[in-house]
Design a protein that fits this description.
The chain has 388 residues and is α/β, with parallel strands linked by helices. It contains 15 helices and ten strands. The longest helix has 27 residues.
Length: 388
């Protein structure tokens, strides 16, 4: 059996809000006592994680005094130094406090928009203080229940204005920091602006400094919309915008479940891991997921270990898939190209277009040809089931 022990080079990270989740839901009270940020750092070190990420208020309560904030930071820093855990990413909570009930950057109230910018600048300072180099923006309340309440064009313009402002702030402070935008279709709002990774990628190109801004796609958020997560990740990678990624699992069309990675759709998780490993993605593998409400903190550790173990098992399966002789032969046949069409394809020229217009192509013969995809998919299933 292979060794599935997580190592620092795997860059597995968890948020304070993930392993620190106390099991509260809309229908039930907490089932686990809260732990301090420092205690959660030690928990993550025990299970073998590489790093820990946080919202500003995961670390420092929103109403903490300056003295209380300094004491929390000292304890947190000591835990990081003792364990060796890193802080690769940070973010701002712009959704929990009642002031954000109608959004932060998109609020109709300019006082709310000003407070959101103020809070984010301070949170950026906090993240950088602990070494974060990626800063995630999730617009949890940036949306509506009724489109009578907010003009969508104005909302888009307000988000653009805020991100341009914050990019300039980072540049002015000379921080080594990039932004990653996280899409979600709904919940906690009826509809959230920029519902998918594709929406975010289009929006980024309208910013003043698009080179500073990428995306943080999340498995559950794309699956909630019934989309193929791998395709969104591939588009982000091809655009050079995959700055961070959130791994978990989800039943399509449900509320945001944040299940343990690979626990729902193992084939989708396999092809995601295969893609990340094949292209050489070098960023964090961040698990934005929660243990079941049935668990105590030993169960939380089981959850965290399970996320990392499943990723490493699927990484091994991906290497096996790539090396399998029958799969390699099928792929060679499926992708066969004798080069005879090269003069007709690729960049346009008038000569190429003229030649292509007159090229005889036997569409009926091509249409009758089987493509071997059933066999290829079955071999994939057999690898995942462990019989190859």
């Amino acid at each position: 059996m292979s060794d599935y022990t997580p190592k620092p080079e795997h860059k597995f990270t968890f948020g304070l809000w993930t392993v620190g989740n106390v099991g509260r839901d809309p229908f039930g009270h907490p089932v686990r006592d809260p732990k301090s940020p420092a205690e959660l750092v030690h928990l993550l070190a025990e299970v073998g994680a590489y790093g820990v990420n946080f919202h500003d208020n995961d670390l420092i309560p929103i109403d903490a005094t300056p003295a209380e904030a300094e004491a929390i930071k000292r304890e947190f820093r000591k835990a990081l130094e003792t364990t060796g855990l890193k802080v690769p990413m940070a973010t701002t909570n712009l959704f929990s406090d009642p002031i954000f009930k109608d959004g932060a950057f998109t609020s109709n109230d300019p006082r709310v928009r000003a407070y959101a910018l103020q809070k984010t600048m301070r949170a950026i300072d906090l993240g950088v203080e602990f070494g974060a180099q990626v800063y995630v923006f999730w617009g949890g309340r940036e949306g509506t229940e009724s489109d009578a309440t907010k003009d969508p064009v104005t909302a888009i313009q307000r988000i653009r204005e805020a991100l341009n402002f914050l990019c300039e702030y980072v540049r002015d402070q000379k921080y080594d920091l990039k932004f990653a935008l996280e899409a979600k279709p709904n919940e906690p709002r009826g509809d959230i602006y920029f519902a998918t990774t594709g929406h975010m990628l289009a929006f980024i190109e309208t910013l003043d400094h698009p080179e500073m801004v990428g995306v943080n796609p999340e498995v559950a958020h794309e699956h909630m919309a019934g989309l193929n997560f791998l395709h969104g990740v591939a588009q982000a990678w091809e655009a050079g915008k995959l700055f961070h990624i959130d791994l978990n699992d989800q039943y399509a069309g449900r509320y945001d479940q944040d299940f343990r990675f690979g626990s729902r759709d193992i084939k989708a998780a396999f092809f995601l891991v295969k893609f990340l490993e094949d292209v050489g993605y070098a960023g964090s593998r961040h698990f934005d997921a929660h243990a079941y409400r049935t668990e105590d903190y030993e169960g939380v550790k089981d959850f965290a270990r399970g996320c990392m173990r499943t990723y490493l098992i699927l990484k091994e399966k991906a290497a096996q898939w790539n090396a399998d002789p029958e799969i390699r032969a099928l792929l060679a046949e499926i992708n066969a190209d004798d080069g005879s069409l090269a003069p007709y394809l690729g960049p346009y020229t008038p000569q190429k277009a003229a030649a292509l217009r007159d090229l005889p192509i036997d569409r009926q013969a091509i249409g009758r040809r089987g493509l071997l995809y059933e066999r290829l998919d079955q071999l994939t299933i057999e690898i995942l089931l462990g019989i190859r």
